[in-house]
Design brief:
Blueprint: H1 3-25, H2 30-34, H3 44-62, H4 91-111, H5 114-117, E1 120-124, E2 130-134, H6 135-159
Antiparallel strand pairs: 1-2
Length: 176
């Protein structure tokens, strides 16, 4: 397995699990979607929206990579705070945006070459602190953040009595 295949698998897993979780969420009544859970002090809708915003921020940062990834070209002039479509009024709109982001992440990983991973990417966080880190580590961080966000969402769904069947990466790892 190559690093490229590793990231492609994580992108496929990301899309698969987001589809699964949004399918569960779309069945919830609006009051359950917006009810603030005690565990996260956030609603299910808020958790979904925060995960989308994090992905948008990282993709906007990744757009500055000199490889000029086609999947991110339209984001080259976007800042963390200037992402279009950050706030969505309802779950259906948010799901459409989530799908577009997942397609973009899949396309990014498809374009990825191993040599791109070592490139030091310079970015600023929301507090305007400057960082310079290797792109491969930052891409891994994107997937780790998604895992963390979905873990919180799964707990919030369980609090509503919804227990998804398998959510493990093993479900999308191909047989040898």
């Amino acid at each position: 397995m190559t690093l490229k295949q590793h990231f492609e698998l994580l992108a496929q897993y990301n899309q698969w699990l987001n589809e699964k979780l949004y399918s569960l969420c779309i069945e919830l009544p609006d009051d359950q979607l917006i009810d603030v859970t005690s565990l996260h002090h956030c609603s299910i809708f808020g958790l979904l929206q925060a995960a989308v915003q994090l992905d948008q921020q990282w993709l906007a940062r990744f757009a500055s990579h000199p490889a000029g990834f086609v999947a991110l070209l339209d984001l080259r002039q976007v800042t963390d705070t200037g992402m279009p479509e950050t706030q969505q009024p309802d779950l259906s709109s948010l799901w459409r945006l989530r799908n577009r982001l997942d397609q973009r992440i899949l396309a990014l990983c498809d374009e990825l070459e191993v040599c791109h991973l070592a490139y030091p990417l310079v970015y600023e966080n929301r507090q305007h602190n400057r960082f310079e880190k290797r792109f491969g580590y930052l891409l891994q961080h994107l997937f780790n953040q998604q895992t963390l966000a979905r873990g919180g969402l799964i707990i919030a769904l369980q609090q509503q009595g919804i227990v998804p069947d398998t959510t493990e990466l093993l479900a999308v790892i191909p047989e040898a």
